[in-house]
Amino acid sequence: MGFQDGVRRHSVIAALKNEQDMKRLECSKVEVCFLLFGEINTLHQTVNRIRRMGKQVYLHVDLAQGFGNDRAALKYIRKEIEPDGVLSTRTHLIRFAREEGLFTIQRLFIPDTMSVETGKHLLKQSKADAVEVMPGVVPAWVYKELRRNHDIPIVAGGLLHGLGDIKSALENGADAISVSNGEIWDLTF
């Protein structure tokens, strides 16, 4: 089962920030999660714990403690941590991770019109397998522009406060949403 299958079956991705989120994840309908915390000495156990729950886990390499910003870190993550994939805001790390055979999610911040063009350029450079757009409450034309030359899954993340924001992001073109609010994880959209 891959990322696209997981988000097709359940379009809510759990963004895990701490141990309490891990406990809540176990009983949830979530199929895919983004691991936004952890450190080099315990990540393998954390990833295995999530897998035993029957969930896919994608490691946010920018937030994991104890790793450098280089190819050696991605090799180590692939061989020793063994997540289903990684996400990062750093284009070079996404490229390295793809070269190492990991599924990659490029995280893009879209605060203005110019950043949409920058985001399209970064996606072309990184050749990411998916993209997370932050904040997720961007207008529909942003999703259309990002999809124009890149037929990849788009995740809306950040500032999705209520059901209206979530429904809007999905109607505007996001394939899935990533949220840390565990009360939303089991909702179906």
Automatic annotation (TrEMBL):
Protein name: Glycerol uptake operon antiterminator regulatory protein
Function: Regulates expression of the glpD operon. In the presence of glycerol 3-phosphate (G3P) causes antitermination of transcription of glpD at the inverted repeat of the leader region to enhance its transcription. Binds and stabilizes glpD leader mRNA.
Alphabetical keyword list: Glycerol metabolism, RNA-binding, Transcription, Transcription regulation
GO process annotations (BP): glycerol metabolic process; regulation of DNA-templated transcription
Domain of life of the source: Bacteria
Pfam families linked to this entry: G3P_antiterm (PF04309)
Entry keyword annotation includes Transcription: yes
Listed SUPFAM superfamilies: GlpP-like
Record-linked Gene3D superfamilies: Aldolase class I
UniProt-recorded Gene Ontology molecular function terms: RNA binding
